[in-house]
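Quiz preparation item.
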């Protein structure tokens, strides 16, 4: 469970230590015995609720067989935690950025995601994601399938027993931006209508007709937790930004409030999306 005093970096280091231990096939009790520390200390390190000491983390990584670049990155993360750094601008490879996001989504109780030009990642169909990555032309062809699979794996969080509440706020431009052709978009719209019926998913559309609104500066996601501070996630082509400072949260809370006022309610939004799917089903006029 996340702790209220755990910073984002500490939580992520803990998640990486837990993952590495499990990949090594070791139990927490065995690790505690080998390192001469208590089980509670291993638990606190893996939840990010205690300040990690470099020697403890180095010992754990050695025990787990983590070496080279991966070891260096985690030790650097440990040093940043010790320096009290907050927020996180990740310019690491895609697998690390996605792992941080997946870990946060798996612990979240509510996710509020605003998208201005694209369907939210947690609600994309596989064919939409593939067509998007191919059409953008910035992802190497040999990475597209892996990226698509990773995005689909992220979506499993919505199917677990205690799934987070997802509030997806979508600007109408994202619905009008066709990706992959009419058939791909029709099936994407149908999937949105289907997902909107789930009890833990709310989809709302901000229509063009409502003019200027608080989401015009770009997309973001706010992740809320039962016993830890909220985290904001903002991404671009080469990096991911995770924010946890109070003033950043407050600004985006105001943006969410404005978007909620500008958006259609869930029923009207579903009706709009279903109408777009029907339009794509019609044969082109002569």
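Solution:
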């Amino acid at each position: 469970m996340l702790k209220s005093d755990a910073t984002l970096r500490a939580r992520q280091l803990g998640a990486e230590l837990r993952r590495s231990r499990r990949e090594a096939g070791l139990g927490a009790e065995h690790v505690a015995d080998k390192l001469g520390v208590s089980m509670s200390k291993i638990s606190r390190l893996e939840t990010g609720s205690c300040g990690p000491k470099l020697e403890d983390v180095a010992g754990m990584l050695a025990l787990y067989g983590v070496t080279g670049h991966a070891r260096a990155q985690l030790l650097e993360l440990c040093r940043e935690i010790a320096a009290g750094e907050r927020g996180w601008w990740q310019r690491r490879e895609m697998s690390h950025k996605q792992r941080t996001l997946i870990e946060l989504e798996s612990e979240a109780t509510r996710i509020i995601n605003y998208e201005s030009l694209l369907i939210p990642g947690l609600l994309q169909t596989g064919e939409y994601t593939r067509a998007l990555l191919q059409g953008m032309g910035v992802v190497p062809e040999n990475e597209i399938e892996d990226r698509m699979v990773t995005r689909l794996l992220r979506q499993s969080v919505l199917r677990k027993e205690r799934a987070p509440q997802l509030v997806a706020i979508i600007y109408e431009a994202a619905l009008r931006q066709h990706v992959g052709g009419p058939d791909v978009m029709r099936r994407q719209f149908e999937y949105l209508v289907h997902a909107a019926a789930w009890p833990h998913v709310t989809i709302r559309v901000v229509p063009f007709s409502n003019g200027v609104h608080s989401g015009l500066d770009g997309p973001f996601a706010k992740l809320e937790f039962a016993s830890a501070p909220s985290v904001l996630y903002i991404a671009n082509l080469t990096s991911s930004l995770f924010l946890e400072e109070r003033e950043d949260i407050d600004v985006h809370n105001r943006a969410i409030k404005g978007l909620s006022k500008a958006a259609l309610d869930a029923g009207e939004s579903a009706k709009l999306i279903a109408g777009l799917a029907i339009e794509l089903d019609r044969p082109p006029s002569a």
